[in-house]
Amino acid sequence: MRLSNNAEEILEHLWIMTMETGKKTSGFKELKTDRNAPEVEELIALNYIDVSEKGIVLNKKGMKEAEDAVRRHRLAERLMIDVFGIRKNLMEDTACRFEHLIRKEVEESICTLLGHPKACPHGKPIPQGRCCRERSRSPKSIVSNLADVKKGTKGRVAYLYTGDNKKLGKLMTMGILPGVPVEVVQTFPTHVFKIGHMQVAVDREMAGDVFIRLKSR
Ligand SMILES: [Zn+2]
Ligand SMILES: [Zn+2]
To answer: Does domain 76-134 have CATH number 3.40.50.720?
Structure first.
């Protein structure tokens, strides 16, 4: 059975609260629902949540399902920005509707297409899927990180993702900024790229933080 959109939104909210803010119980008001709402009944019937007077807590079974929903939401956002070129301020609404259309079967294809992105456009981490762990470097990717592409690959920087501000600053001062054309000159022993007329060298880890939109062949 497929979850309703409302139930999926509740799962996402609960996962974000639990995993990213450390608050385990969310109140009904905060979730914009109530104890007798159909979406709450739905989640109880599936045994995804535990309900008390204070609100709702995700249980173990629900946690996995919720993580998948968050993953789909953040993948949908990446898809909006990286592939459809929708501006960030217009993205939210479309992404919210689109995420519910992403089924399990296509989720991995979308993730591969996007080069197994590490973060959504808001900088929030995207939970990994099986495809990310197995990292089959499918030639179908439209976006890839610079550590995974071959010499001679051309594209434009789509976005940078690193949890480390110092590294981010370093990449930016090298001229690695969204929209800038890149060409891979060398991949061993260091990664060397042509950025405009300049050549820059970075280690593998830093190359993995730069995602480029590949030039179509
Ligand atoms: Zn986001
Ligand atoms: Zn993946």
So the answer is: no
